[in-house]
């Protein structure tokens, strides 16, 4: 099915694209194929032309005429073979159209020259000319104008020679003319159709390529948008830590791995003490900077395999794989101390920022993440209740760190 893309874009008589640029691109794209096919067709046609030496001998026998015929055939064959080689290597279809036309003219001249040398076999030669014309039209691809002109030259040249040299009668000349007109017409329209079909196919292919390219670009754009969205969803804007949702996903994975590998796993809830007072006294922007500094401090103090996220407000959450409660306490203590020593004098002058940390460890196999969070939260609450700036493990809720 041909789309509207190609309809009306091809010249009626040449089958070429109306737009010169498009035609030039088309020719450039098919140049290697045309070169190959032209060279091969020429090779075959030349060899067939040469093979007719046998029939020359049959018609004229060994003698001067035969030698002349042989010379013509050898000249045509040698020059055409050389041109077939040149075409195959350098026959640029766009710039060197004359190179494609030349062998056709040589072949046509060779065929015309046979008439005075073998006038008695005119009938056979008419058939040979008709076959040669069809071969020109059908075997030489994508060169309609070149082929049409060469065919016209062969037809007229043959007709004139037949009348002038072989003394063809008016009736015979008329018959030859009709046959050649018919052969030319059939050949021309067959090649015209072929040229149009090939260009239509090419145009459709181009269109498809453009669409595919657009689709690829669209897919790449969407993928990059998706990645951007994912990054936004996974990160907390203020602190750069994992967002709550992303933390839950990652922590869930770590917990499952710990449970199936029967390795210890702990969860830490970190809450900034009296943070409301910081906001109220120095403003939200100062509060934000304090939160970001604490987040950075925590992140730097953890191991690469630990996962930290912002749980909400001034609360952070940490998953510690391969860590038992006592080791988690050590980590938490280190964190607590580092926060307490933070140089945040610029943000909150004369204020010592502290955090309270609640820890829960997996004791039973069935413990799930929400339960663990609840336990850590309870420990945190106990820590707040117990005076803040401390670490509390869930199993010893009520005790001070
Ligand atoms: N600047 C800033 N403040 C926030 C943010 N998220 C939550 N807060 C504030 O953090 C404060 C938390 O206050 P509370 O829950 O009363 O806790 P607290 O004052 O830290 O007291 P304790 O936790 O009991 O020690 C609230 O005033 C929130 O508005 C944030 O992203 N930036």
Low-confidence stretches: 397-401
Bin the helical content: 55-70%
> Major β-sheet, in short?
5 strands, mixed
Shape: rod-shaped
Total discrete domains: 2
**Which small-molecule species are bound to the chains here?**
guanosine-5'-triphosphate
Q: How much of the polypeptide forms β-strand, as a percent range?
A: 5-15%
Mean pLDDT: 90
Number of helices: 12
Order of helices and strands: HHHHHHHHEHHEEHEHE
Please count the beta strands (DSSP E, at least 2 residues each): 5
Domain GGDEF: 263-396
InterPro entries: Diguanylate_Cyclase (IPR050469), GGDEF_dom (IPR000160), Nucleotide_cyclase (IPR029787), Rev_trsase/Diguanyl_cyclase (IPR043128)
GO molecular function: diguanylate cyclase activity
Transmembrane segments: 40-60, 66-85, 97-116, 122-140, 147-166, 172-192
Overview features:
single chain, 401 residues, Alpha-Beta Plaits, 5-stranded mixed beta sheet, 12 helices, 5 strands, rod-shaped, disordered C terminus, binds guanosine-5'-triphosphate, Nucleotide_cyclase, GGDEF_dom, diguanylate cyclase, diguanylate cyclase activity
Textual characterization of the structure:
The chain is α+β, with helices and mostly antiparallel strands. It has two domains: 20-212, no CATH class; 244-396, 2-Layer Sandwich (Alpha-Beta Plaits), CATH 3.30.70.270. 67% of the residues lie in helices and 8% in strands. The protein is built from twelve helices and five strands. It has helices spanning 20-51, 53-60, 64-90, 97-117, 122-139, 144-164, 170-234, 244-260, 275-282, 284-301, 325-340, 369-385; strands spanning 265-272, 307-312, 315-321, 355-361, 391-393. The chain has a five-stranded mixed β-sheet. Helix 12 (369-385) links the parallel strand 4 and strand 5 (391-393). Helix 5 (122-139) runs parallel beside helix 7 (170-234). The radius of gyration is 45 Å and the shape is rod-shaped. The two termini are 81 Å apart. The model is unreliable at 397-401 (pLDDT under 50). Bound molecules: guanosine-5'-triphosphate (GTP). This is diguanylate cyclase. The chain crosses the membrane at residues 40-60, 66-85, 97-116, 122-140, 147-166, 172-192. Its cofactor is Mg(2+). One of its GO terms (molecular function) is diguanylate cyclase activity. It is an enzyme of class 2 (transferase).
């Amino acid at each position: 099915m041909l789309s509207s893309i190609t309809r009306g874009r091809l010249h009626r008589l040449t089958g070429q694209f109306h737009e010169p640029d498009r035609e030039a691109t088309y020719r450039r794209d098919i140049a290697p194929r045309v070169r190959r096919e032209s060279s091969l067709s020429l090779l075959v046609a030349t060899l067939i032309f040469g093979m007719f030496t046998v029939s020359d001998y049959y018609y004229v026998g060994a003698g001067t005429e035969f030698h002349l015929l042989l010379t013509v055939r050898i000249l045509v064959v040698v020059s055409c073979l050389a041109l077939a080689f040149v075409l195959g290597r350098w026959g640029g279809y766009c710039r060197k159209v004359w190179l494609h036309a030349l062998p056709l003219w040589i072949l046509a001249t060779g065929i015309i020259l046979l008439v005075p040398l073998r006038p008695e076999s005119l009938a056979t030669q008419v058939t040979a000319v008709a076959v040669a014309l069809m071969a020109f039209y059908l075997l030489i691809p994508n060169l309609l104008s070149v082929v049409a002109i060469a065919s016209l030259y062969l037809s007229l040249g043959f007709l004139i020679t037949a009348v002038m040299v072989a003394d063809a009668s008016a009736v015979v000349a008329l018959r030859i003319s009709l046959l050649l007109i018919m052969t030319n017409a059939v050949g021309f329209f067959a090649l015209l159709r072929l040229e149009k079909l090939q260009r239509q196919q090419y145009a459709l292919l181009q269109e498809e390529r453009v669409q595919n390219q657009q689709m690829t670009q669209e897919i790449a754009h969407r993928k990059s948008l998706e990645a951007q969205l994912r990054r936004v969803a996974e990160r907390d804007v203020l602190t750069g830590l994992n967002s709550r949702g992303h933390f839950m996903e990652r922590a869930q994975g770590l917990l499952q791995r710990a449970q199936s590998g029967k390795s210890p796993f702990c969860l830490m809830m970190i809450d900034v003490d009296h943070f409301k007072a910081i906001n109220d006294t120095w403003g939200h922007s100062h509060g934000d900077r304090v939160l970001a500094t604490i987040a950075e401090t925590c992140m730097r103090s953890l191991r690469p395999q630990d996962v930290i996220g912002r749980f909400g407000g001034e609360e952070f959450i940490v998953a510690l794989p391969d860590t038992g409660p006592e080791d988690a306490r050590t980590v938490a203590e280190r964190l607590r101390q580092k926060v307490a020593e933070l140089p945040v004098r610029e943000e909150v002058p004369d204020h010592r920022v502290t955090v309270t940390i609640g820890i829960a460890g997996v004791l039973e196999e069935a413990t799930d993440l929400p339960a663990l969070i609840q336990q850590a939260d309870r420990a945190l609450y106990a820590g707040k209740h117990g005076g803040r700036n401390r670490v509390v493990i869930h199993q010893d809720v009520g005790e001070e760190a």
